[in-house]
Structure formats: structure tokens, C-alpha cells
């Protein structure tokens, strides 16, 4: 039996309960969780913005140590430090074969299959196929990537989603070129990672936008050239910093129609607006036919930073080792399993960058 933060329904608080993991089967890996970031996608699953069946153990941004491997698993062994990948590509579907593994049609297969049971025998689902709000989890072999020994294992958890998504939005989706001007709206873990990604890409202007002064201050420390509070004259201030044009690239890291429109409005004619945040299906962003023609902007969605784990995790590890990407600076709270509800509350209120769940501290 292991302790886990179990969610039984939309809008309910998670409850710390003991669950029994199913035996590690062929092609599976059992992992002792070192740490898990609390991501906005977890909150979206908890509050019903994204569909989720129950009961479920959420958490998908995790790292840990291999406890056991199933038959046929050869790329990791017991004792290896690993990063958990919540959307492992199958390598065989049309999207994988066409160099779009972040859109793999089988990436969410594990999320639909129970992986544990409660004390009363009720089967439990793994949130996003990963279930890292727990002391241990069992995942598909493709869902773990071996980490270098000696890596800061707890902070490495953020590579599982926030950092890959934020930097990937800049490097893979938008392909920001050196000298470009950028704006990032929303300075949670993903937005602050996008700021770092823009700095690594050698963007000349990096404008960070958030109502929280602490987050704006952190963004400046991580490479933003300017940090602005949302206000009616935001567009005017951004244009003043970009030769009157607006930014080449705007990144929306909130997931709301209103901020998508804001990002669009900050983008220059011919520029690119990238929607990174996960929004609700009923929150509609509207654009007139005339403005789509006139501004000649590109509006694109971004899933998981257009990430290919095999390519991007090693690249990120190199940037982390060289000090170009700072993982520790993103962590504004370290909590035990019993702190997940408070972390969700902080996220709803826009406080903090990333809460890091360390199950052993609970």
C-alpha cells in the first residue's frame, strides 16, 4: 500500500488515502516518486474544465527512482533516476511517423486504464497516465526517461511538463529567432519557462506580463527585459518597446479567451500568437474576418510545447547543467501530499509559480 492524494469528484478536495498499486506488468515500470509539480492542468482536471473519470490520482509532472521493471523493459533498471513523461509517443501512429509525437493518438491510453485500487476494492485511474501525487506509481515503459545520476531529482520533475511546455513553445512551436521581440502573458511555471526559453533563444525583447508583482520580479531575474502589469494601456506600452509595431511573438500561458485576445493584440502585423494555456471548451475567443485578413498574424495552439521527449529532454538537461535554464527558481513552495489542496487554492488566486510536492515530506 502507498499513500496518494485521491480525487473522488469534480470540485471535491483531494483526500490522502492508501491505495494498492496493481502488479508491475510487461512493458511497465514502477517508480518511487521523488517530487511532482502541481500544474494548472491538474487543476483543470479537478474542477471539470477537462474531462476526467473518478476516482483518480492526479499529478503528471514528476521524477523519481525505478523500483521495479516489468518484462521486456530494458532502457531503465531498478535504482535508475527517471523523469516521467505524461504523453509518451507510441512511435507508430500517423502523427509520430510525421514528426509530431506531441500529438500521438495513443499518448493518453494509460490514463483510461485503472492502475490501483482503494482499500474497499474500488479501482483508481492514473491522472494523465502518470499519477504522481503519490508515494509510488506504475507507468508504461515509454513514460520514463533515464536521468543522469547526480541530477537534482526533485527539481527535475519540472522537466515533465512546465519547462518542456514553456521552452518548447518558444523553440519548437514558434521557433523564435535571435533578435526577435516576445511577450509572455501569465507567469506561472509554464510562462516563466517560456521567458527562459526566449532568453536562451537570444530574443532581443522579452516582455513578461502578469498582475502579480512577485512573479514579474522573478521574470526579470530569469531574463525578461521588461515586466508589465495588465492594464488598459498594455498594448500602447508594448508597442512603445517594439518600435510601434508590437511583438514578433506573443505567448498566452493562461488559457482564457480574454488573454488570448490580449496576446493577439500585442502581436505585430505578420507576427505570431501562440496559445499555450489550456482553456475551457465554452470560453470562446472571437476574431473578425477583417482583422484576420488585415493583420496577417498567425494564431496557433501549442500542445506540450510540441515536445519530442527523445530530442528535448537531453537538450534541456544540457541547458540546466550549463546554468542557462534555472529549475530551482521556479519552485515557490515545497509541500507534502497533504498540501495539494492548498496548492490548488494558490493557483486559483494566481499566487506563486510552481508548488513542488515531495511525498516523502508528508
Notable traits:
362 residues, alpha/beta, Rossmann fold, 11 helices
Oligomer: single chain
Number of domains: 2
Sequence stretches where pLDDT stays below 50 over 5 or more residues: none
Instruction: Please give the radius of gyration in angstroms.
Output: 20 Å
What percent of the residues sit in helical stretches (DSSP H or I)? 25-40%
The tally of strands reads: 18
Question: So, CATH architecture of the largest domain?
Answer: Alpha-Beta Complex
Percent of residues in beta strands: 25-35%
User: For this structure, what is the CATH class of the largest domain?
Assistant: Alpha Beta
Task: Tell me, rounded to a whole number, the average pLDDT.
Answer: 96
Listing every helix as H and every strand as E from the N terminus to the C terminus, the arrangement reads: EEEHEEEHEEEEHHEHEHEHEHEHEHEHE
Amino acid at each position: 500500500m502507498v499513500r496518494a492524494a485521491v480525487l473522488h469528484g469534480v470540485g471535491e478536495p483531494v483526500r490522502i488515502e492508501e491505495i494498492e498499486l496493481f502488479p508491475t506488468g510487461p512493458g511497465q515500470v514502477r517508480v518511487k516518486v521523488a517530487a511532482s509539480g502541481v500544474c494548472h492542468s491538474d487543476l483543470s482536471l479537478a474542477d471539470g474544465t477537462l474531462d476526467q473519470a473518478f476516482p483518480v490520482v492526479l499529478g503528471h509532472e514528476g521524477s523519481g527512482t525505478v523500483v521495479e521493471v516489468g518484462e521486456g523493459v530494458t532502457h531503465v533498471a531498478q535504482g535508475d533516476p527517471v523523469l516521467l513523461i505524461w504523453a509518451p509517443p507510441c512511435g507508430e501512429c500517423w502523427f509520430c511517423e510525421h514528426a509530431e509525437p506531441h500529438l500521438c493518438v495513443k499518448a493518453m491510453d494509460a490514463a483510461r486504464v485503472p492502475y490501483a485500487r482503494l482499500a474497499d476494492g474500488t479501482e483508481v485511474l492514473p491522472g494523465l497516465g502518470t499519477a504522481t501525487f503519490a508515494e509510488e506509481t506504475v507507468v508504461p515503459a515509454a513514460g520514463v526517461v533515464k536521468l543522469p545520476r547526480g541530477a537534482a531529482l526533485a527539481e527535475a520533475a519540472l522537466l515533465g511538463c512546465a519547462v518542456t511546455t514553456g521552452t518548447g513553445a518558444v523553440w519548437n512551436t514558434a521557433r523564435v529567432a535571435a533578435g526577435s521581440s516576445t511577450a509572455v502573458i501569465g507567469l506561472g511555471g509554464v510562462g516563466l519557462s517560456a521567458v527562459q526559453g526566449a532568453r536562451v533563444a537570444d530574443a532581443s525583447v522579452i516582455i513578461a506580463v502578469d498582475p502579480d508583482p512577485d512573479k514579474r520580479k522573478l521574470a526579470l531575474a530569469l531574463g525578461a527585459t521588461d515586466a508589465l502589469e495588465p492594464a488598459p494601456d498594455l498594448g500602447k506600452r508594448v508597442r512603445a518597446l517594439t518600435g510601434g509595431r508590437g511583438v514578433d511573438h506573443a505567448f498566452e500561458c493562461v488559457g482564457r479567451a480574454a488573454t488570448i485576445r490580449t496576446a493577439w493584440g500585442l502581436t505585430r502585423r505578420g507576427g505570431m500568437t501562440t496559445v499555450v494555456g489550456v482553456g475551457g471548451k465554452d470560453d470562446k475567443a472571437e476574431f473578425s474576418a477583417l482583422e484576420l485578413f488585415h493583420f496577417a498574424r498567425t494564431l496557433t495552439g501549442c500542445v506540450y510545447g510540441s515536445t519530442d521527449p527523445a530530442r528535448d529532454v537531453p537538450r534541456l538537461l544540457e541547458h540546466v547543467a550549463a546554468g542557462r535554464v534555472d529549475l530551482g527558481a521556479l519552485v515557490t513552495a515545497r509541500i507534502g501530499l497533504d498540501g495539494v489542496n492548498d496548492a490548488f487554492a494558490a493557483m486559483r488566486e494566481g499566487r506563486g509559480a510552481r508548488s513542488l510536492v515531495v511525498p516523502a515530506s508528508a
